[in-house]
Amino acid sequence: MSITIIPTSVFADVVSQEVAQSQVATRVANLGAQGIEIRRELFVESDDHLPLEQCRQAIQQSNLSFTVYSVPASLWQENHLLNQKILYRSLNEAQQLGAYAVKLSLGHYDREHSSIDLLLTSLDQFFAEHSSAAPIHLWIENDQTLYGGDPIRLLQFFEQLTTLEAHSQWYSIGMTFDIGNWLYAGQDALEAAQRLSPYVTYIHAKHAVKQHNTYMTLPLPTEEQALWKQVIALLPDQAWRAIEFTLSDDTQIGYYNDLLSTAEGSMYTMSDNREQNLLLSSILSTPVDSTLLDIVTFGEAMTMFVAEEVGDLHEVALFSKRLAGAEANAAIGFARLGLRSGWASKVGADAFGTFVQQKLASEHVNLDHVRVDTEHPTGFQLKSKVISGDPQVQYFRRGSAASQMSVDDLDSTYFSSARHLHMTGIPLALSDRNREFAQHVIQQMRAHHRSISFDPNLRPALWSSHTEMIQTINAFAVQADIVLPGIEEGQILTGSAVPEKIAEFYLKQGVKAVVVKLGPSGAYYRTQEQSGTVSGFIVDQVIDTVGAGDGFAVGTVSGWLAGLPIEEAITRGCAIGALAVQSIGDHEGYPSENELQQFIETCPRYLSDQVLLTENAENEKSTVEHDYSPDPSLEGVK
């Protein structure tokens, strides 16, 4: 088994600055790691008052053997000269910390213009002036830049070190190998591993996929030929290993710490003057930031019984059990795309409640904010099977556990640990308690500068009056960054059936973007700067429309969060909506990221003029020049 080290950035409460780095040393030791990595960027104090001694004492008391000090700075400046100030400052702080090694990025090293002799002389000078201090090892990390993440530059750097036979009793120089960073820098991680393996002492493992012009960091896949496993197999087996991605609890952290300690690497033996370092890896792998989750939602999930035969529900004898609920659908959809997705709710202490939790957990949705209510049941519903058109749905949800969710149940830190909130209008219809809960959640997200998306998802039957529904839904919608109404929902909520005027209604009240779903043929969008239409995808057969609207939200919001142009984000939404209607069940057709990209590239789309609306100023009516169902209960294509 390899030595493992746990960085403080693993702990969500440290990243959110609720807990000091020094306070997790004991937890690191209890989780089975041999060392801890202290991150300079996580200190909130000024440079002159870093709590290094406090961390050192806590680490010693925890009996941890090794400390790594991570400094987000470059060794070589833009002019290719050594940054001696950064080098000396980092070494000095590392000594105060009692660190075994300090980690820096290569920076703008150039073989012709950068003096490694000066680096070695500077190191010798530093330790001559600090002769009473313990040795410190310098580890150079490939970063996400085109210069610091260039394998040729790194190889030249380490080859020059080897030529100079650079070694000392006071220091050694090795490499931190970050698998994910190679992808961001446009490099081949496997090729880099083959070239740089002799110098690697510290391994960071991330999984990322390219989406248009950006990379999205995803959980580490489990298949044997996964990239991170192939890379580790090429790197020294003796290399220290660690997890870097933020996790929700210590049990998860301990699990991945054990997993990484047993991963098999190369039998290559590093030279004696090099030491081993960490493997940074992830199943919820993401760039280190101040969040535990990418996206969180809340609402009611129900057990759904779907008829196995066509006919009226009262005549059906056989049903199959599935999961239903708009917010649960969205949480599953986001998780399948590789986002860290969370769902908050209440369920009953019954078989239906257990089923809901097990189903969501199997989809890797975080359930840390799910409460079990011993006094109220989990809701359920019946859905008919149809050959064409929309299925008949009957709900049994009055007085459900989810409708009892109140501010008393709110863990505000759970929501603020997510970088985005996606909500719908359904919980607002369930009870006054739910509405109060929702308002507190929004306030919490806004206080932490998080973004919000809102899908009206109108359910008129759940409201006491249309007036109350319209006023309440709009009051919440205008607090969001992006609003996603269907064309008929927009008409109900704004009084206009013209997409441009629906969008204008919300934009005037501060919403950043409005996307109006126009049916299977596409969507209209408008922001403060631009507007347009996006074509939908043509499908051969529509099997079940329920859940397609939630899928549209998943695709659009995930693209929006990834920073894609709004047209590309909406294209994702149209694609997931089209995939959803081709499967029985609310979310069964939702794709993985790779499946989504393949569908977008291969599936035919409607012509742009089939999405355009004919504006009729008189009566403000609009029609889509394609087959379109006016049924306002259709949850998918609006």
Automatic annotation (TrEMBL):
- Which UniProt keywords are present, listed alphabetically? ATP-binding, Kinase, Nucleotide-binding, Transferase
In this chain, the stretch annotated as Disordered covers 618-638
Q: What is the top-level taxon of the source organism?
A: Bacteria
Check the record and name the SUPFAM superfamilies matching this protein.
Ribokinase-like, Xylose isomerase-like
Residue stretches making up the Carbohydrate kinase PfkB domain: 294-590
For this UniProt entry, the molecular function terms from Gene Ontology, in alphabetical order, are: kinase activity
Pfam annotation, one family:
AP_endonuc_2
Domain Xylose isomerase-like TIM barrel, first and last residues per copy:
27-211
Return the Basic and acidic residues bias intervals.
Answer: 618-629
Concerning its family, UniProt says: Belongs to the carbohydrate kinase PfkB family.
Task: Name it.
Answer: PfkB family carbohydrate kinase
* Native species: Paenibacillus nicotianae
Which classification does the entry list for the species? Bacteria, Bacillati, Bacillota, Bacilli, Bacillales
